[in-house]
Amino acid sequence: AVGQKQRVEIIKALYREARLLILDEPTAVLTPQEVDQLFETLRQMTADGRGLIFISHKLHEVLALSDRITVLRQGKVTGQTTTEGATRGSLASMMVGREVKLAPDKPAATPGPPALEIEDLEVIGDRGNVVVDNLDLEVRTGEIVGIAGVSGNGQRELAEAIAGLREVAGGSISIAGTNVTNLRPAEVRAAGLAYVPEGRMKDGSIGLFTVSENLLLIDHNSKQFLDAGLMNFEAIRTHSQALVDEFAVKTPSLDTPVRSLSGGNIQKLILARELSGTPNVLIASQPTRGDDIGAAEYIHKRLVRQRSEDTAIVVISEDLDEVYALSDRIAVMYEGRIMGIVDPSVTREEIGLMMAGVAHERTVTE
């Protein structure tokens, strides 16, 4: 298991008589139970007189483990405090420079009919093995279904199969009543899919292209941007500026190469492009991974707003805080299967057991 491999790495450091251990996001691929076990080991190390530097964006873990906390923003120290004098809110404020909502205001969902229907889905991975195994999932308009799980349990391949980027070996995928199984990505989009991939620079944008060009990637053939068969640059700039303003994308200009923007602003740009139409279904994979808290706060707010516009939303995330904050229902994946679909009232321990492969007796359909 990943948690056991991590403990082996710590043992190797101790064997070399390390007195200071630096851990950079050590819990990113662990279940909650494995995190608890890791923290027990780390506390024992400090009790034995060793020093630890724990680098993490997960505020509850920082508060649970640390004695002293230093906050960095854009490479500079913006605050130092003891754990006793800190809260998640105070740390977030130091990270961003203003008060931050750690969870979006989310009115009760009023789900409509199914917009995404997946039946008996089977997908083959890059190594020729089954990575999505007879998976069933239904997502209705006006709800957010969060998919939790340790990295590498078929989440990425599931998203790619829905988007038409990976071949489906068995089963079916329907969007708004249209069977899109193994259709080309353009045809899947025409059925009403918007897709925010986890690889924002690899799959979600083209770094050498400008902000304006990236905003036009999916509908450059639209009649509103053409004039007698040629690009209508005035219409393109008007459209692009409106999206940049609406989604608060910080960029020097519309002609700035996207690779010059921060990760959070690239993600907001991708979200702006994908939501510029009226999608029936939105797949958002790791929507705030690597983003600062300010950008994450904005993206969460936009996802909740899109839910209120009757979009069926799937949020795939390895961050349990994010899954809890956004989801109306939570599906947990393990080795390509869904271990259970539960409401957000379940405990982290229950989610953690499902992440480790224990099927849950309850499945919430409403």
Layout of helices and strands, plus pairs?
Blueprint: H1 2-15, E1 20-24, H2 32-47, E2 51-55, H3 59-65, E3 68-73, E4 76-82, H4 88-96, E5 114-124, E6 130-140, E7 144-148, H5 155-163, E8 168-175, E9 178-179, H6 185-190, E10 193-196, H7 211-215, E11 226-227, E12 230-231, H8 233-246, H9 263-274, E13 281-285, H10 293-308, E14 312-316, H11 320-326, E15 329-334, E16 337-342, H12 348-355
Task: Please explain how this structure is put together.
Helix content is 34%, strand content 25%. The longest helix has 16 residues, at 32-47. It has helices at residues 2-15, 32-47, 59-65, 88-96, 155-163, 185-190, 211-215, 233-246, 263-274, 293-308, 320-326, 348-355; strands spanning 20-24, 51-55, 68-73, 76-82, 114-124, 130-140, 144-148, 168-175, 178-179, 193-196, 226-227, 230-231, 281-285, 312-316, 329-334, 337-342. With 366 residues, the protein is α/β, with parallel strands linked by helices. The model has no long low-confidence stretch (mean pLDDT 89). The strands form five sheets. Strands 10-13-14-7-15-16 form a six-stranded mixed β-sheet, sandwiched between helices. A four-stranded antiparallel β-sheet has the order 6-5-8-9, covered by helices on one side. A two-stranded parallel sheet has the order 1-2. It is globular, with a radius of gyration of 22 Å. It is built from twelve helices and 16 strands. α9 runs parallel beside α10.
